[in-house]
Design a protein that fits this description.
Length: 185
C-alpha cells in the first residue's frame, strides 16, 4: 500500500459511504512454461481513458449476462488476451480491491491452465502481454518502492519490478495477496 512520510497507508481499502463502486473481476492465470509457473499481465494501451499504459491483470466490468464475477474474469480474459475459458480451472478467489480512480471493486480469481496459452490481444485495450514467472514474484527483491505524488501528496509507492515494468496499485495489491497465500501454503 502507498504510505505517507509517517508510514500510514494513504490508499483507502473500501469506497467511502454513499459511493457505490462498480463490480468487476480479474483473472490471475497460472500456467506452466519453461519448467515453472507463469502468469500473464497486460500492458494497457495509451489511448484508454483510465489506467492507460499501466500493467494490469486481464479483467473488467461485470456484465449481467456473466451471472457471476468469476464468469466476468473468464470472459474478460478471453476478450482481452484470448484465454479459452473452458481450459481454466478456477481454484480460489482473493480479497476484493477497491480502485479509487475508476471506482471499481475488483474481485480477483486465481485459475490454472494445463498449457501456456496462445495469446491473442484485443489491440484496442492491450498493447502487450508480460509473462511473469511466479518465482520472480516470490523473490523479495522484486518488490521495490519509489516516492510519487498521488492526489497532491508525496507517498512511498511499492511496486513489483518485472522487467522494464513497474506493477503497482491494485494489481500489485492482488499480486501481494497471491504471494502471501503461496508463502503460507
Amino acid at each position: 500500500m502507498p504510505r505517507d512520510e509517517t508510514g500510514r497507508s494513504t490508499r483507502p481499502s473500501e469506497a467511502p459511504p454513499g459511493l457505490a463502486p462498480r463490480a468487476g473481476a480479474v483473472l490471475v492465470l497460472l500456467y506452466p512454461h519453461a519448467d515453472e509457473l507463469y502468469l500473464p499481465l497486460t500492458v494497457r494501451t495509451a489511448g484508454l481513458r483510465n489506467h492507460s499504459g499501466e500493467v494490469s491483470l486481464p479483467g473488467g466490468s461485470f456484465d449481467v449476462v456473466d451471472g457471476t464475477l468469476d464468469r466476468t474474469a473468464l470472459r474478460e480474459a478471453a476478450e482481452e488476451i484470448g484465454i479459452v475459458p473452458e481450459t481454466v480451472e478456477l481454484i480460489s478467489d482473493l480479497t476484493p480491491v477497491w480502485i479509487p480512480v475508476s471506482n471499481f471493486r475488483i474481485t480477483p480469481y486465481v485459475g490454472l491452465t494445463a498449457a501456456r496459452p496462445a495469446f491473442t490481444l484485443a489491440t484496442a485495450e492491450v498493447a502487450a502481454v508480460v509473462e511473469a514467472p511466479l518465482t520472480l514474484l516470490l523473490n523479495e527483491a522484486t518488490v521495490q518502492s519509489e516516492i510519487r505524488e498521488l492526489r497532491g501528496h508525496l507517498v512511498r509507492v511499492p511496486y513489483f519490478a518485472i522487467g522494464a515494468h513497474k506493477v503497482w496499485g491494485a494489481t500489485a495489491i492482488i499480486l501481494a495477496q497471491l504471494v502471501g497465500r503461496l508463502r503460507m501454503a
